[in-house]
Amino acid sequence: MNCETCQLKELELEQDEIKDVLRCILHTIFFHRTLTLVRPKDVDCDLFEITYVQCGLPDLEKEVDEKINQFIAWVEKHPNRRSQVCLSFFEDKNKNPSWFTNKTERIYWEQWFINLHVASPKGHGKSRSSKATSIGGKALEEARSKRAALGLLIQEVLFQIINFANEKKDHIPAISDRIFNHEISIPSSSDSVFGWNVDVLRRVLNS
Amino acid sequence: MSATSGAAAEPPMVEQVITEFFAKSLHIILESRSPYESSRNLTRPSPPSSPLSGSQPRDRWFNLALRDCPAALENFDLWRQSNLEPLVIDIVLLCQDSTSSSTAGCGKIIERWIIQYETRNFCGDNGNGSKNNVRKSRSSSGEDHSLYRATYQGSTVLLRSLHLVVRLLPAYSLFRDLNSSGRIRPLNLSHKISSFVEPFTRQEDAEMKHYAFAPIETLFGRLSLSVSYVPVLEVVAASESTTPVPPEIIKDYVGSPTTDFLKQFNSLPSAGIAPACIAMNRRHSWSIEHGAGTSVSPSPSPTDSEPHGSPQTCIPLRVSLKRGSHIQNASPSGQNKYTQFEECCHPSSPLSPSPSHSPSGSYPKNPLFRYRSTPVVIPTVKSGGASSRLPPSPCSKGKHQFSSHSDNLAPSPDDNSNVRKDLVSLGEVEKDKALQKVLSCNKYDLGYFHGLKLARTPSKLFIMGELDEHELAFACEDKDTIIDQLSRADISDREEQKMNEDAGGSSTRSPAAAIGALVRLLKTAPGLREGLQSDAGAVVPQEPSSVQKVVNEEHGSIASSSTVASSSLLKSRTATDALEELKKYREIKESIQNRRKTQSRDTKLGEKQTDGEP
Q1: Cα(B31)–Cα(B46) distance, integer angstroms
Q2: Which family does it belong to (chain A) (predicted)?
Q3: Which residue, B73, B148, B397, B521, is the most exposed by fewest CB within 10 angstroms?
Q4: How far apart are CA B87 and CA B223, in angstroms?
Q5: Share of chain A above pLDDT 90, in %
């Protein structure tokens, strides 16, 4: 089975936007790949004028939020860097079952790479704290236009997900009564400069 | 429902998937585009009328449970003849005429959804021709099942994409606004379902953007879904506008210098507020063109009931009421409007101090105005210190500088102390009565003090005269300040016999008379410096600095007020006024002091001579 990969457009964002952006993107992917019975839940982004859809599964929401928090913690330690969050879907298959071993192998059938460039918020903080009216107004205007541009980019990413999810369907396993096995990989401290997870890279090369 | 004769028929299971796909698509689209349809909470799904439907309830088809069941679905199976007919759903924006209750009016198609099943014969698709030929040759049930699974799975994913896309298009925000607000609006969303595609006009076609989902290949054809939409909805959001703030309200709250103030402010919306409103209208005028910039509706009105709860609609109101001095400073550039907007959303942010207005420039040419405001404007800070403040008393030394007044304000000689104490006691009694009357008023009550109409709000006391309430209305922030000011005015009255009548004046005197009395009172009042003598923190040796210190103390006492801007403006204005008044007081005081000095000297000399005589 081939592993289909989708590299999403890189998004430049600030630290306080990470949660909103990642929630939107991750839940959109899950909504397209959770083919079990779902009762969709509309969610409005906090910072952008975008309404996305969640599967309405509390466990999944909790898992996504935990991973996002871990990613934010990593970003705080590694500011102003490009990074990736990878959502992988896999199947567990028994590899060479024998009397003594019952090794299972993960076979990834789809991977989504969310490319982010988290900018440092220090410059904006100074401008916002400035008491001068003109400087504060300029900074605010820049922030608003930047956020608007990011909102458009997020929509482009969502359409990218929609296009990919509908064009590549043949590799999806049969619908079962539970959601597909998945994992959300975030950069770890030992990763390289670009925050690539070494394990993810190995899997991509092997697929 | 099955394919027409002449075309190869899909397996029954696939046929059923196609049928349910049409129904589900209609359900998803109408749920997010038909405001009144989707408000119906029909928890029980309508039973499928098609004999081919399985045991699965219709709303759970494709594992997508949708709660609402639009009325259009109830008869969907009845009027739909064949899967080969396209399903065309037009979303129409209706502009209702306010005079008529009917939906007659302009109607514009803002979205067109086309769902259709095209057989292989018609679509002429060659991309997957080889695959389909292979499929055609297989007729085993196993293959049918795999075909069914592939079609069903593909439809499941596609319908999820549809569920998302309907929320990303501009019409969704309009739908949400119409659905959330129960008000009758001039705009409405309607839909039209048909089985033929009515071509757009050239203008409409040029305006529309198109998006097509990836089709679902079946054995003998394919399912396709596409949408044509207007990327920019020029929706007038005036229907959602907040209650406009009449300028009269603003004038009532702002004193005379704000006459020019208001003129400047009125010019602001065209330059300062509108761009912010345009930014707020982003949700209604929205382009999702890939890489396209945000299309902004030219609608200038602020929106209300934003799904995100933003407080943007309050900009004109909040800015006009609270940020008077800041508006004064704002230039009609784009930069300052955001600062105003920011301050609206963050009302706790401190205001920048406004430049003090030149009294000669901005004040009306009313000689009485200055005198009216003075006694209330120059406060003392000490809370509860009204009783300890000594009335202005004649000083033993007659010096022209304020620096000398410190000596005069020093603990007085015995000859003045008794007079002072009497005046204090008198002042206290009378002051308490009058102050009680004023301060015991309920919120927004009117009271009278010395013939002046006083209006009280929880935080402010407004003194209004008959002649020009706009000029006279100003705020006293601190209760103690009010007490002190009124007490000083009260005590000053008793200094002169002529003023006693005024001091004891009834509240029924006309404001003009009261103003005249107050003017006389101020003219003949002894120096303010003596009134501040008992105030421990208010002893200031220097003449200019003492006034400034009083003003500074006033600033310090009301620094935490939410109307710092207006009070600072008043302070700067009245401080200037106060300085001028003090100069006059000084002259008057010096004359009185000289008079008393000579009198006291004569008295002393007379006593000495009496005592010293052998």
Answers
A1: 15
A2: Belongs to the ATG101 family.
A3: B397
A4: 11
A5: 58
Q: What number of CA atoms fall less than 13 Å from residue A74's CA on the CB side? A: 27
Pick from B164, B279, B352: which is nearest to A162 by CB?
B164
Helix (H) or strand (E) holding B222: strand B221-229
How far does A163 lie from chain B, in Å, by closest CA? Answer: 7
CA distance B136 to chain A (A): 19
pLDDT in tens, A93-120: 876 666 666 677 889 999 999 999 998 7
Number of structural domains found in chain B: 1
CA distance A142 to chain B (A): 10
Q: How high is the pLDDT of residue A120?
A: 76
| Residue B571 and residue B259 in contact, taking contact as beta carbons nearer than 8 Å | no
Nearest alpha-carbon partner for B515 in B403, B371, B314, B342: B371
CB contact under 8 A, B352 and A133: yes
Are residues B286 and A144, on separate chains, in Cβ contact within 8 Å? no
Rounded Cα distance, A164 and B116, in Å: 21
In a domain, B176, yes or no: yes
pLDDT band at B110 (very low <50, low <70, confident <90, very high): very high
Domains of chain A, by residue range, sit at 4-94+105-120+144-205
**CA end-to-end distance (rounded Å), chain A:** 9
Is A112 in the B-facing interface, judged by CB distances under 8 Å? Answer: no
Chain A residues closer than 8 Å to B344 by CB: none
0.80 exceeded by the pTM?
A: no
CB-neighbour burial class of residue A202 (10 A; exposed 0-12, middle 13-18, buried 19+): exposed
CATH number at residue B27: 3.30.900.10
How wide is the angle at C-alpha B83 spanned by C-alphas B29 and B20, nearest 5°?
50
Calculate ∠ Cα B287-B289-B292, nearest 5°: 85
Tell me whether residue B378 is in a domain.
Answer: no
User: To 10 degrees, the CA torsion angle through B297, B300, B305, B308?
Assistant: 60
- Give yes or no for B54 touching A (CB within 8 A): no
Length of chain B: 614
Write the residue in B60, B294, B341 that is nearest to A37 by C-beta.
B60
Tokens of A78: 């590694």
Q: Would you call B89 helix, strand, or coil by DSSP? A: strand
What does the alpha-carbon distance between residue A197 and residue A188 come to, in Å, rounded to a whole number? Answer: 7
User: Using CB atoms within 10 A of its CB, is residue A163 exposed (0-12), middle (13-18) or buried (19+)?
Assistant: middle
Strand ranges inside A46-195, DSSP E:
51-54, 81-94, 104-119, 181-185
| Among candidates B161, B173, B334 on the partner chain, residue whose Cβ is nearest the Cβ of A162 | B161
CA of A155: which chain B residue's CA is closest?
Answer: B288
B512 lies in some domain: no
pLDDT band with cut points at 50, 70 and 90 for residue A27: very high
The set of residues, in sequence order, having a beta carbon less than 8 Å from that of B573 and lying 6+ positions away, is B255, B257, B356, B357, B359, B363, B377
Q: Would an 8 Å CB–CB cutoff place A35 in contact with chain B?
A: yes
Please tell me which of the candidates A51, A138, A172 has its beta carbon nearest to residue B153: A172
Region A4-94+105-120+144-205: CATH code: 3.30.900.10
| Residue B270 within any structural domain of the chain | no
Q: What is the pLDDT of residues B118-145, one digit of tens each?
A: 887 755 544 454 454 444 445 567 777 7
Instruction: At B447, list the tokens.
Output: 């009271």
The token pair at B576 is: 């200037």
Task: State yes or no: pLDDT of A60 exceeds 90.
Answer: yes
* Residue (of A161, A197, A149) closest to A26 by Cα position: A161
Burial class from Cβ neighbours inside 10 Å (0-12, 13-18, 19+) for residue B608 reads exposed
Instruction: Return the higher-pLDDT residue of B140 and A24.
Output: A24
- What string of DSSP letters covers B153-171? HHHHHHHHHHHHHHHHSHH
